[in-house]
Amino acid sequence: MLPSMPMGGGEKNSRLHALYQSLSSEDKHSLVAFAEFLQQRSSLKKESLQQQLQLPGDMQRPQQESVVAAIRRLSGCYPMLEKETLLHETSDLMSSHVLKGRTATDVIDDLEVLFSSRYEEYRKQLQTE
Question: What is the reported pTM?
């Protein structure tokens, strides 16, 4: 029997078991060593991902905040995001406040959504690498 072979799994485990049984003793050891290598590599990938993934900071939104202060706060909360990629959208939002008269509260709400969504994209990208 395969060492630490999971129970269940049906046809795949039956096929794996049959293949394992057909191997020589030396090849069985090689297969187990390779499986251990794959398991260790998988664990290292998970550890690396956890080390790379930066979590956003937690700076509470004040009752009264200007749009500029909100951009600074959010930039500090999300230092892992590339500022150049956010520049166009943040400047559009800032312009909608200054030039078009949108309220600071509405613009700040949109900024928070923008930064949060960009963080989710960052997180997903790291998970697929």
Answer: 0.58
